[in-house]
Amino acid sequence: MRINLLGAPVDCLTMEQAEERVAELVRSGGPRRIITLNPEFLYRAVREDHTLMELVDRADLVTADGEGIVWGGRVAGTPFPERVTGIDLMLRLVKRAAAEGWRVFLLGAAPGVAEEAAENMVKRFPGLQVVGTQHGYFKPHEEAGIVETIKQRAPQLLFVALGAPAQEKWIDRHIESIGDVVAIGVGGSFDVISGRVARAPLWMQKLKIEWLGRLISEPSRWRRMLVLPKFALLVLRTYRLGYKN
């Protein structure tokens, strides 16, 4: 079932159900897009860049990434069962890939990070087939070659860590050329999996304040955090006060 939140179709799924949905997409073949939707992305899609909403509309799976989206669903009267974050979904999919024999490609982050993340994942999930890695610091004229490399390696899962919404735009531009692959933007997940950046402690995750942990560890994110109260106000105006977007 899909829920309409501020005009965006978001799948109402648990983490386990999202994993199974991705497995179905892998088995069905074809170019497939997954968006893990957070408040910042959705706010920009509604208020600043309507092309982002088009990306959401074209996605085969849209998850409620972030407590803000889950809260928005409750306010709208259509609650989500839980949040389905990019990094947690990625780790479940990598584990599934090792068991199912799916091929994986990592694209993005700083030079060396994707390789370190791949090494750690292979250690954690023996049998995982990482068929390639590519850092995200490439020039526009290099994109065609990168796309061709990914196509030749024929991954079934493509994780793109270029930051939102750049990663979703990159996927949308190139996925048809790559072909049979399920592509998902995962933000800073490679940094965490590589060990270069520490994720917020589990107690923060359980208290649903992981965003605060990220702000403490990365103070430069404060400007991005300013969108959260704007998003909350937009949700309240729309669903409690009856204003149109």
Automatic annotation (TrEMBL):
Domain of life of the native organism: Bacteria
Enzyme Commission code(s) on record: 2.4.1.187
Entry keyword annotation includes NADP: no
Pfam family, one: Glyco_tran_WecG
The reaction(s) this protein catalyses: UDP-N-acetyl-alpha-D-mannosamine + N-acetyl-alpha-D-glucosaminyl-di-trans,octa-cis-undecaprenyl diphosphate = N-acetyl-beta-D-mannosaminyl-(1->4)-N-acetyl-alpha-D-glucosaminyl di-trans,octa-cis-undecaprenyl diphosphate + UDP + H(+)
Gene Ontology MF: a single term: N-acetylglucosaminyldiphosphoundecaprenol N-acetyl-beta-D-mannosaminyltransferase activity
One of the GO biological process terms: cell wall organization
Pathway assigned in UniProt: Cell wall biogenesis; teichoic acid biosynthesis
Keywords associated with the record: Cell wall biogenesis/degradation, Glycosyltransferase, Teichoic acid biosynthesis, Transferase
InterPro entries: TagA_TarA, WecG_TagA_CpsF
Annotated family: Belongs to the glycosyltransferase 26 family. TagA/TarA subfamily.
Described purpose of this protein according to its UniProt entry: Catalyzes the conversion of GlcNAc-PP-undecaprenol into ManNAc-GlcNAc-PP-undecaprenol, the first committed lipid intermediate in the de novo synthesis of teichoic acid.
PANTHER family: PTHR34136, UDP-N-ACETYL-D-MANNOSAMINURONIC ACID TRANSFERASE (PTHR34136:SF1)
NCBIfam families found in the cross-reference section: wecG_tagA_cpsF
Protein name: N-acetylglucosaminyldiphosphoundecaprenol N-acetyl-beta-D-mannosaminyltransferase
